[in-house]
Amino acid sequence: MIPTPAPGKRLGLGQTPNNPIKPEDNTVTTKTVRVRRIYDEPTPTDGTRVLVDRIWPRGMTKARAHLDQWCKDIAPSTELRKWYHHDPARFDEFTRRYRDELTETQRANALKDLRKLASQATLTLLTATTDVDRSEAAVLADLLRGHSSTRKKKNAGATHQ
Description:
With 161 residues, the protein is α/β, with parallel strands linked by helices.
């Protein structure tokens, strides 16, 4: 018989009562982090909806967006965004540079706020990008999930929609 956790305690991914793997201080293991396009219809499973683009999405009204937050401060710098230009061949380097930018005070504070939101409920990161798997939202989601890279393994149960 497997013992259950103490009342009010939750086990993280990969943990058992006898093997309490401790997550890194900067990871979220008990809630879901999703990445979706802002243009997709909201769903009841979205939880907290946060736009992570610096620029407001073309043609989107605030009422239609159903946002809980617009976190402009977490977005990549204009210089990095323009350099990347959503070129798939540059995504790995974009990821490296963006992670470096996320150590800057303003972005680091915004990331801390996202971690707090993700620890409380499902967090859906929203972007206007058509390729959400190669976006700043995907980089952020991986960081929040505790993954060391944004490379996805096929059939790994990704929560992208």
